[in-house]
Amino acid sequence: MTARRQRTLARPVIIEGFGLFGGADVTMTLLPAPADTGLLFERVDLPGRPQIPARIHCLVPQPRRTILARGTARVEMVEHVLAALAGLWVDNCRIQLDALEPPVGDGSALEIVEAILCGEITLQASEVRPARVTTPFRVDQPGERGAIDVSPGEGCTIQYDLDYGATVIPAQSFTALITPEEFVREIAFARTFVLESEVALLRARGFGQRATPQNLLVFGPGGVVDNVLRAPDECARHKLLDCIGDFALAGGLPRGRFHAVQSGHHLNHRVIQGLLGALEPQLQSA
Asked: Which residues pair with 30 in a beta bridge?
């Protein structure tokens, strides 16, 4: 793939809503940024308006979502806005938030994508310098089924295989070479999903108090509750969307082929840590 020029927004866009986990009202403003800025969060509700780079060294490991922090400032559930920006090849953007989480929208990246496209994207003078996979490796979790195999390749190609066994969610797989056109057409609409049996447990821990089947897919014993699938493999597509958002913590989408099997945020993050040499993962020859 030939080198491309960096991109940013032509003008600011504003999205309002509430956070999925904490439920706080939030206004998110996406602003143009100079070349080589990267994706940068800014907590405008905190003293000094602290900034948090969307980079793997700012990661705070937690289950079910991606959290970033710098000093005492933090942002949570950032994977969907990062996926929207990275999927549209927006390399430089200031992401202003006046609360802990971005707006959940309908549980996908679609609302964010539509706002970005309305604000338009403009080219910048500098070229993109992506992280590149040069050596095949694998990350996995001992005793668990998940794994991601990584190998060199042109562009960023992701395959996600999902199989929860004997559950209401059928086995499924989706593969995409990530381009803006492919992201808008095939991935952005895919929504967060959860089993109905998990909802009560999450709410007992204080999470998702304002969430409804309209801003995430809830699977009960008979299938999707009070909603309909946008694609038969929507769950695999959403997991691939999460991969895009998490892989953007490399400073933009890395170049390579990524085959994820039953992976979650933890393994997604370990791929980027391994790729950038931030830790010593157990590398296995692919």
From this structure: 13, 95
Kindly report, as residue ranges, where domains of CATH 3.30.230.20 are found in the chain: 5-127
Please state, in angstroms and rounded to a whole number, the distance separating the CA atoms of residues 34 and 180: 21
Tell the CATH superfamily of the 137-276 domain: lpxc deacetylase, domain 2 (3.30.1700.10)
Contact criterion met (CB below 8 Å) for 203 and 209? yes
Tens digits of residue pLDDT in 129-148: 999 999 999 999 887 789 99
Query: pLDDT by residue (tens digit) across 208-259?
Result: 678 788 888 999 999 999 999 999 999 999 999 999 999 999 999 999 999 9
Of the residues 238, 265, 266, 269, only one is catalytic, namely: 265
The CATH code of domain 5-127 reads 3.30.230.20
> Is residue 259 flagged as an active site residue?
no
* Beta-strand pair 193-195/217-220: parallel
DSSP state of 114: H
User: Where does 71-179 have alpha helices with state H?
Assistant: 79-87, 110-119
Looking at the chain, which residues constitute the CATH 3.30.1700.10 domain(s)? 137-276
> Strand ranges (DSSP E) for 92-220?
93-97, 121-127, 137-140, 147-151, 156-162, 172-177, 193-195, 217-220
Count each helix (H run) and each strand (E run) in the chain, helices first: 6, 18
Report yes or no: 66 and 45 within 8 Å, Cβ to Cβ: no
Q: Which residue has the tokens 């309909």?
A: 228
